[in-house]
Amino acid sequence: MVSQANDDVTYVNRDIAPTTPEQRQWSLYNYLSLWIGMAHNIPTYLMAGGFIVLGLNWWQAILTVFIGNLIVLIPILLNAHPGTKYGIPFPVLARASFGVIGAGIPAVLRALVGAGWFGIETAIGGQAIQTFLLLIVPHWNHFSNTGTFLGMNLGGWISFLLFWFLNVWIIYHGIQAVKRFETWAGPLVLLLGIGLLIWAVSAAHGFGPLLNAAAKVHGAAFWAVEIPALTSVVGFWATLSLNIPDFTRFAKSQKAQEWGQALGLPLTMTIFSGIGVLVTSATIVVFHHAISDPITLLGHFHNVVILLISLGAVVVATLSVNVAANIVSPAYDFIQLFPRHLTFARGGLITGILGILMAPWLLISNPHIYIFTWLNVYSGFLGPIAAILIADYWVFRHRKLDVKELYEKRSQYFYERGYNPRAIWALVAGIVVSLIGKVVPSLSWLFNYSWFVGFIVAFIVYLILMYSHYGSSMTSN
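^ Nucleobase:cation symporter-1, NCS1 family, sequence as received from the core. Prediction below:
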């Protein structure tokens, strides 16, 4: 048990202390519904469609989503294990490899990506609210178009901020409120997708022309699209591959979280991406042009009751992924920086504010920017972090941690003034090698594999530096 009544109190508070047996109540269903809620979101719906725009055919696009999620499931399960075994969140797990203070480095990198995703998802949720207001408020369209700032008009900003407050309200009710919300929100999102698919098949009298369209890229051109696309799928959940201990620390057992995640992630991501492709294909028949955005598609419906229910489901869907994937971890990450002053709720509020300031919703307007820049660049940062966590816990320490010392200044995890320089050098090496292809054209292939390259380099460098310095595993009880 970690006590807060000592002179190292600045390194622990109630929100990041190890979970108690009473807190470990999350079952297989909770993790299954968590992933259903997170995977069934608008960017997932758009993902395979974006790959088709870039030249893949429908089955290549869906297969890419499935394989990418099988790959990213591996680091997710590896990093989930210590969360369940020791009841600790991601920033505290990172202390074992980066140092009690140095863990702030991966925590900040993860938090900034989370804030960016928060902005993207909040813009999507705001768009649904905007469509809702256009239906029920007279003259809203005229009022809404008054002025434009950072790519959104007045109505868009009002809708964005309304959705923003919904996210913050849930977070202010704590992590258990997140659990309760995800339990019922996840299945609701799946029902919306199935409903759209039934409509599409009925209205188009089939699945539309996309299923008959051949791939536009072949040979070397195919791999020039396929490899970055696969990396972007891995990068899509590279964030959760780090902070999954934030959720698995509440698991009843290893089996509950492992099976819940193994069933919840690859299948739901693939199914929802497939629904997006099939519905988009049908819209070509129904409306004579492709409508890939489900919110835009819902705006074409004339039954007000169905439309309002559908838009409500979109709002719930986006809330579901935003709260779980984009606020929970950054909230814990910011606590790592200032544990004496921040709480879970305050960390979530900081995330929300950064999500506004970063204005990352502009990224999803172009598939090339969204897939080849946003997802692949941050993959080059997060892949090395995942590698260091896994190398330290599974290889160097053989899954043995002294939990009490993770919160103390006078401990093996304090390294040199709170930082482990070997982890920092491994992180830098992984980032540089994975991203150098972004600025050196002859090495562009390294950037196309950014997550994989960064992971392999950081994994090897970290273990070489740690074994050369310590000789063998550091003592852990």
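Residues 9-470 form a domain with the Hydantoin permease fold (CATH 1.10.4160.10).
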